[in-house]
Amino acid sequence: MAKDPVRVLVTGAAGQIGYALVPMIARGVMLGPDQPVILHMLDIEPAAMALNGVKMELIDAAFPLLRGVVATTDVAEACKDVNIAVMVGGFPRKEGMERKDVMSKNVSIYKAQASALEQYAAPDCKVLVVANPANTNALILKEFAPSIPEKNITCLTRLDHNRALGQISERINIHVSEVKNVIIWGNHSSTQYPDVNHATVIPTNGEEKSVREAIANDNWLNTEFITTVQQRGAAIIKARKLSSALSAASAACDHIRDWVLGTPKGTWVSMGVYSDGSYGIQPGIIYSFPVTCEKGQWSIVQGLKIDEFSREKMDATAKELMEEKTLAYSCLN
Question: What pLDDT score does 95 carry?
């Protein structure tokens, strides 16, 4: 029996990330090669023509899994009955803008989109926020869509997770699939903490060992590795003169695929989720933790040993998230 199509919403669909993401979804990268999809694409009025152009291209690509395309500037129409929402649309920080200006613009966008999801989306809708400040945008969305379960609202730190895997595989010249269980703690910002203390490498022809042992350079792991992952987005903007769209779209597919279809046994991934107090991180913020997923549910990996170096970095990024939360709430009032 053919599966029923899943309705997937992409906001900001005419933008850079949206343009990279929608063909991946239509090709089955996000939900698997046997799962039909109906794409809902939302963008703002000035992008309506470009959005229609993306719709034309999706039709022209003749994707076998694509059962329909809704391209609209109407948020109610876009959210109608969606099962998965990937929130890429947001207000980008422009030169000379204060953090508070960006925050107040995004708070009003995410408050409005939360209300539309609350009213029109499928009751079990899974939400992934990509637009920055991703953690705080997700928190605002959670506040204003109270009927969507808090476990269904997440933000993207899988891009940082994948960047960390990439840096390690490049450093020791092994395939990226042979590295696992890095962790991104905290905020999707330059305070995030990429942690390799529990990560391992399994070369195809050898036995499993810790990343620290394989790299044998704690100084690099505690300094340059961390800053490279933290600053990677800025480095790509400098090189490409545009932000990382391809890798962000790919990471969004990874995030949803693992969430819906499950993580491989013995492997965890990083997701920004609503803190329940695990690892001493105060509840009430969306914070990136290591998680495993099964049957469409994520759970935070428990019982990992945290050393002093890690504790300090984990607390610093939590502090930044608390400050962002305060700033966001002041914009609401």
Answer: 76
